[in-house]
Design brief:
Layout (H helix, E strand, L loop, with lengths): L1 H31 L30 H13 L2 H14 L13 H16 L2 H15 L2 E2 L4 E2 L9 E2 L9 E2 L4 E3 L7 H10 L2 H17 L10 E4 L6 E3 L13 H18 L2 H19 L20 H15 L4 H22 L30 H14 L8
Antiparallel strand pairs: 1-2, 3-4, 5-6, 6-7
Helix pairs in contact: 1-12, 2-3, 2-4, 2-12, 3-4, 4-5, 6-7, 8-9, 8-10, 9-10, 10-11, 10-12
């Protein structure tokens, strides 16, 4: 009886929050249009990305069109399609200047051009997607068997957030966990063209991530550094988490969803096993924190910092895993996803249709002296929250 009541309660919540998404997204689509948002200003309004320090090539710029395509699939309203296509055309400039494209080509073009092609069969969108996939594949390091993360323009950089450790690394030898969510662009390109090169690169990168990024207990590194000439493993800086050896929650969420997606595209059971191991680690940590992710699962108790974006991404990953396990096993993933989304809604969501953004409480990285990137609205939090809700409503578009 308890389970039935819980399911009823979840369904009531789901129906209610879906109605809120419909109202909020219609108002935002009209207000924001083909501007590309990242976060809100001091007045709670979105700025176009080109009016900020980040610019048109910033890695988050695919999430707004991704939200629009999800709403188009759910509602059939052409205003979402037309607006998403306008944003896609703005992003095309990146394909004309390959130096601006790094490993985040997947985030940028899976959710814009490839989504467009999947939902409308637009051939120009297909061309954009395949060009982006080729640029992503070109970043593959043959000796290290990984896709290089960042461009030369970043130069030598401090790759650990903790100021107590000043180790530097060669940018050419860096792979990061985030790329597990970009390699589905390569899986799509292989399926679309019949060319196995793309898929082989994606699988090779995922295997390297299994070996060097995920840990036996289900926690993950954010960054791993290799010698770019020989492919030799060098070290694993702390990246956007608290310190080396810690457990940055958004990185954990990329691993849950990313490895589950690699299982979808390959059928390699080791990828599903990895996704489940990381998922169980995340579930255990959130269960003792009111189903909300800390910025780093191994951060100090004070100050207490959350990252709502990690919550939404993890929920999507859990729902992806649930598609591949038996009926008696999937409930742990579905019920955990509900708990995470409902906790996120209660603590962080803003459903005022006159205000920009839905999910507040996003944190970009742990060490943030100014506080400008701590517990603020971030566009990808909204994208993954919407995707998760639409998945549960059987109204989502598969964009990965």
């Amino acid at each position: 009886m308890g389970e039935k009541l819980a399911k009823c309660s979840n369904q009531d919540w789901l129906d209610n929050v879906y109605d809120k998404i419909l109202a909020k997204m219609k108002a935002e689509c009209i207000r924001v249009g083909s501007n590309i948002p990242y976060t809100t200003d001091k007045d709670g309004k979105y700025q176009d990305i080109e009016q900020t320090q980040w610019g048109i090539g910033f890695w988050t710029n695919g999430f707004w069109p991704g939200m629009l395509w999800q709403m188009y699939k759910a509602t059939g309203d052409d205003v979402y399609k037309n607006t998403a296509q306008d944003v896609e055309k703005r992003l095309e400039v990146l394909l004309k200047n390959p130096e601006t494209i790094d490993h985040d080509a997947g985030f940028l073009f899976l959710l814009s051009a490839v989504a467009d092609y999947r939902l409308t069969n637009d051939k120009e969108a297909r061309r954009r997607g395949l060009l982006a996939a080729s640029l992503l594949a070109s970043r593959y390091n043959l000796d290290g068997k990984f896709i290089r993360a960042w461009p030369d323009a970043m130069g030598e950089m401090n790759m650990i957030s903790n100021d107590n450790d000043k180790r530097k690394g060669d940018i050419r030898g860096v792979m990061i966990i985030d790329c597990m969510m970009n390699i589905p662009l390569l899986y799509w390109a292989s399926d679309e063209t019949g060319d196995p090169r793309f898929k082989k690169i994606a699988i090779s990168h995922a295997k390297t991530a299994q070996q060097y990024i995920t840990r036996p207990d289900g926690s993950c590194n954010h960054i791993v550094v290799f010698d770019p000439e020989t492919g030799e493993y060098l070290n694993n800086p702390g990246g956007q988490g608290y310190e080396q050896g810690s457990s940055w929650s958004r990185g954990q969420s990329w691993a849950v969803y990313g490895f589950a997606l690699s299982y979808r595209h390959t059928g390699d059971s080791s990828f599903l096993d990895t996704a489940k191991r990381v998922a169980h680690y995340c579930i255990a940590n959130m269960a003792v924190c009111d189903w909300l992710p800390l910025v780093d699962y191994r951060q100090p108790d004070n100050p207490l910092k959350y990252d709502s974006t990690a919550a939404a991404i993890t929920a999507c990953g859990l729902l992806e895993i649930a598609e591949y396990v038996g009926e008696l096993e999937k409930r742990i993933y579905i019920q955990s996803a509900y708990k995470i989304l409902r906790a996120c809604d209660e603590k962080f969501c803003n459903w005022d249709s006159e205000a920009d953004s839905i999910v507040n409480g996003g944190t970009f990285f742990y060490h943030d002296p100014t506080g400008e990137n701590t517990e603020v609205p971030i566009i990808y939090g909204d994208y993954y929250f919407i995707e998760a809700v639409l998945r549960l409503k059987d109204k989502s578009a598969f964009l990965w």
